[in-house]
């Protein structure tokens, strides 16, 4: 019978198999290692002894059936089934009894052990992979990763370009992602292609990248913005949000932000949203659609902003100054717009 390649049988797994199965069958059960030595048995007195038929199974790479007892060696009738690891017979399951009675049982137990070995190997492989992914993300988050090291990790772990690095905040029910690292209330997610983001999550969704160095830059930017959660946009505001302006506000000294904030100190959040929509739109008609307001409402808001701030949002340069002020107020916690 062809056997699936699995991990090596350990003493712990062998003992667990015997302790689980032996009380449920009417035949003695032995498990031997790659030397044919009994490492687990329903008869503890046999532990550490060589098993002649197990040695034959190992040497001849086949199931050994023994019909007669051997008074010289003490060998009893039974069936010994080889187990494989890496394509090589490395252990044996033996059931004592008339071969016709125990052959099927021995094969069943062998398949059970083979399944346990496969699960053990998959668990080890999964644990190792999870650790490697965590190390890679930790390097990105901490800023200790290098271009060369990151490229090697991405290749080793099978993450194909384009990649994206995203920062998610305030998730009540986070979506499962293989490459994710939770730090306090923030979750960093590295993905090949787009990610699914819960509707309620505030997030910065990374752009597709084909160079590891670009991911390092993204990581530095996300570290900066993650330190100022007030600048991370909610789902409904991502299209109006400008990362460059948010980064400028996050990196600016507090005294400079306070100076910028004075320009828009007297305008409301509705007026602030109007400024964001104007900046994100090619035309006033597009801004109206984003805000879902009447054209007259937009005009009235722009007039009011000019009256209060002295800056006309219809003029690109003055709009830019107003936006910098809005982001500075968000950074200072004076306006909870994002």
TrEMBL record:
Residue stretches in coiled coil: none
Database matches in PANTHER family: CARBOHYDRATE DIACID REGULATOR
Signal peptide: none
Top-rank taxon, per record: Bacteria
Name of this chain's protein: Carbohydrate diacid regulator
Organism annotation: Glutamicibacter protophormiae (Brevibacterium protophormiae)
All residue ranges annotated as the PucR C-terminal helix-turn-helix domain in the record: 280-322
Domain (Putative sugar diacid recognition): residue spans on this chain: 9-135
InterPro entries according to UniProt: CdaR-like_regulators, Diacid_rec, PucR_C-HTH_dom, PucR_C-HTH_sf
Database matches in Pfam families: Diacid_rec, HTH_30
